[in-house]
TrEMBL record:
<dbReference type="InterPro" id="IPR002347">
    <property type="entry name" value="SDR_fam"/>
</dbReference>
<dbReference type="InterPro" id="IPR020904">
    <property type="entry name" value="Sc_DH/Rdtase_CS"/>
</dbReference>
<keyword id="KW-0560">Oxidoreductase</keyword>
<dbReference type="Pfam" id="PF00106">
    <property type="entry name" value="adh_short"/>
</dbReference>
<protein>
    <submittedName>
        <fullName>SDR family NAD(P)-dependent oxidoreductase</fullName>
    </submittedName>
</protein>
<comment type="similarity">
    <text>Belongs to the short-chain dehydrogenases/reductases (SDR) family.</text>
</comment>
<dbReference type="GO" id="GO:0016491">
    <property type="term" value="F:oxidoreductase activity"/>
</dbReference>
<dbReference type="InterPro" id="IPR036291">
    <property type="entry name" value="NAD(P)-bd_dom_sf"/>
</dbReference>
Amino acid sequence: MKIDASLAAVVTGGASGLGLATVKALRAAGASVAIFDLNEEAGAKAAAETGATFAVCDVMSDDSVDAAFATARAAQGQERALICCAGGGNAISTIKRDKETGAITVFPTDKFEFVVKLNVVGTFRCVTRAAAGMATLDAIDGERGAIVNTASAAATDGQMGQAAYSAGKAGIVGITLPIARDLSRFGIRVNTIQPGLFATPMMLRAPQPMLDRLGAMVPFPQRMGDPVEYASLALELLRNTYLNGETIRLDGAIRMQPR
C-alpha cells in the first residue's frame, strides 16, 4: 500500500499517545487522516495541529462508531487504512483480602467486562465497519485495504492486577488471524502490534524514579519505547503487502515480571 496523498486513513484513539504519533506519521507522508477519539478537547486540538479531521467516537457504541465513519468519509472519502489504538485497562486483583478485617472481596465482574469490551469488542466494532467500506473499493495492486490493531505485551505476560487488561488485549491477538482469513477474499490485510512499555502521556504521569526502573527492565535498548517507533511499525504494516495475519511484539525484548 502506498502512503501518500491518495490514501485516506482512520486512527482510533488518535488524540494522544500511540495514536497521535501514528496520525502525525501518516500526515507527514501525505495521507488524509481522520482522528476518532472520545476526548473532544484533545481530539480537536490534535486535528488542528496535524490538519486531520476529527470525529467524536465511543468505540463501545455502534451508533457512535457508525457516525464517526460517516463523518470521516464525508471529509476524505472511503478509508483504505485503519489503525486501532483506542483501548484501556484497570489494575484490580482477582480476589483481595482486607488487611484489617480479613474479608475477601472479588474483582467486580462489571469492571472486568467493561475492559474486555473496550479493547476487543471496541476494536472489532471498528474493524467490521472499516472492512465493509474497504470492500466496496476497487483494488489497487490487488489490495483494497489494510488494518492495524493494537494489543499489548500484557496479552501474553500480564502482571498482577491485569486480568481484565490481559484478557482484552489477548482477545485482539486472538482475532487477528481469523479476521485476516475472513477478509483475504476481499483483498484486505489485518495485523496487530503488541507494544511493551511506551512513553505515552498516561505512562509519563508516573514518578520519574518509577519510569527509570521500568526503562531499566527492558533488555535493549534500556528505555521505554517512543510512540514514534510504534508509528513507524504501523506504517510499515500498511506498506508491506505480504505482511498479513501477524502479531508483532515491539518491546525491546522485555518479558514482563509478575509485578
